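hiii so um. not sure if this is the right channel but i have a protein structure encoded as tokens and i wanna go backwards to a sequence. like what aa goes where. can anyone help
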């Protein structure tokens, strides 16, 4: 998002947080916002009307409220506030409402002290998807109905993760992002943002001890000037050392990479 949409999306998240803090059912709010995203994705003309800068804000809010008669009051409040803002592109409204839905689940988990566990569940599911090409292709198959992809997620995760993680995983396969893995990564980024942390993905040959994790977090936090959430991937192919990815920055100190570089120099 750019410009006006960035500010408007931030306001949507604030509205969601305020609704959850006021006692709204976070799961219901999140699910209804996800449902509305689906409607807006399917109806470009409705997106354009609700984001049209030439239409008065009050008129757009009234239209939104009339369309949401079957939705809960917290959802109506979030959406009517959202359409009063200016948006750079019509699609950005649906993207912001999806982000609001994600944050509803994250806010509830944070309040219950379960945010770290929810983040871990999303990370573990992302690893499962990335490690199974057939599953990855099935979840990213845009020719398959969304309901079928979500049913597959249900089959994989039901009774194995929290209700919040299941809701978010099912949203990740709706096709609103380039891939399910990208959607899950965005959810993890939002979870980290609630803790004002960056996410560092660390690839190592063997599991890290608690002491090793603590030292690595301290070193990376000092390097990047920000507190970090550490997600560790154990990959024997790295042989030794570690490969750290923070956003688009990569610090590669693995033995496998050093050996590959040495071979290139010898060949040259």
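sure thing!! here u go:
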């Amino acid at each position: 998002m750019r410009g006006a949409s960035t500010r408007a999306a931030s306001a949507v998240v604030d509205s969601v947080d305020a609704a959850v803090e006021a006692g709204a059912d976070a799961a219901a709010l999140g699910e209804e916002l996800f449902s509305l995203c689906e409607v807006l994705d399917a109806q470009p003309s409705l997106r354009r009307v609700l984001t049209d800068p030439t239409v008065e804000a009050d008129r757009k809010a009234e239209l939104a409220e009339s369309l949401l008669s079957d939705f809960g009051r917290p959802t109506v409040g979030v959406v009517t506030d959202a359409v009063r803002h200016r948006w750079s592109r019509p699609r950005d409204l649906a993207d912001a409402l999806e982000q609001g839905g994600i944050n509803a689940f994250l806010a509830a988990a944070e309040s219950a002290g379960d945010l770290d566990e929810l983040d871990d569940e999303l990370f573990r599911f992302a690893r499962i998807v990335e490690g199974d090409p057939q599953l990855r292709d099935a979840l990213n198959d845009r020719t398959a109905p969304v309901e079928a992809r979500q049913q597959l997620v249900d089959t994989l995760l039901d009774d194995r993760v929290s209700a919040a993680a299941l809701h978010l995983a099912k949203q990740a396969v709706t096709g609103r992002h380039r891939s399910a893995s990208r959607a899950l990564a965005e959810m993890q980024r939002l979870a980290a943002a609630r803790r004002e942390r960056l996410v560092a993905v660390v690839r190592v040959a063997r599991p890290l001890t608690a002491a090793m994790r603590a030292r690595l977090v301290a070193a990376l936090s000092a390097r990047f000037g920000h507190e970090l959430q550490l997600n560790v991937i154990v990959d024997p192919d790295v042989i030794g050392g570690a490969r750290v990815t923070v956003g688009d920055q990569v610090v590669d100190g693995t033995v496998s990479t050093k050996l590959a570089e040495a071979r290139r120099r010898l060949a040259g």
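oh and Residues 198-267 form one domain.
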